Amino acid sequence: MIASIDVDPQKTFTLICPGELPVQGGDKIGPALNEQATKAQFRVLTKDAHPANAVWVVDSHDKMLVPLEHANADLTWVSHAVPGTEGFETIPELPEVTEYDHVIWKGVEPNLHPYGACFHDIQEKLSTGLIEWLKAKGITTVLVGGLATDYCVKTTAMQLKMHGGFDVWVNLEACRGIAEETTETGCVEMRDAGIHVIETLEEFTA
């Protein structure tokens, strides 16, 4: 059984919301995510859902990526993906939230800023239930796409592989990264962990 996971395909990570965390081309991956889903029996959506008063929030982009001492919020970021705002919404061409088989909202607590969808905390102790849900559905293979390649996609894929033991495929055609260098490094890390990192869906052979 195969599951397709849309990781944080939200307007907050696109030029639709330039004041948040825009990723070049982030709003263009909807068709690739939809095509990816045709290979699976189940489709999962994950969404950042951050409070405006989170401990990691700073008021400008030049103050971002400063290390923090909080156990589960490691870096500063500008406010993004706040429920009720445009940035929280999914990008164009994706299904309604209720049309997915399962949805994970992450980062709801003001002092938790996880990147992966499998755990609420960076220390990976408090499960979101995603791995358990996939196993309950008999899933053995997972196709992953979304935003951004070098942060939430990478971490989610690594968690699915390391903690879930799934056969994980990251479909770069359905992803966009924040920075070229960290995206390349992230792809190396994923491949080293035994994850299939493919340029297009045509390479998917499970």
UniProtKB/TrEMBL annotation:
Its EC number is 3.5.1.19. InterPro entries: Isochorismatase-like_dom, Isochorismatase-like_sf, Isochorismatase_Nicotinamidase. Residues 43-200 form the Isochorismatase-like domain. Pathway: Cofactor biosynthesis; nicotinate biosynthesis; nicotinate from nicotinamide: step 1/1. One of its GO terms (biological process) is pyridine nucleotide biosynthetic process. The keyword Hydrolase applies. GO terms for molecular function: metal ion binding; nicotinamidase activity. It comes from the Bacteria. Keywords: Hydrolase, Metal-binding, Pyridine nucleotide biosynthesis. Belongs to the isochorismatase family. This is nicotinamidase. It comes from Grimontia marina.
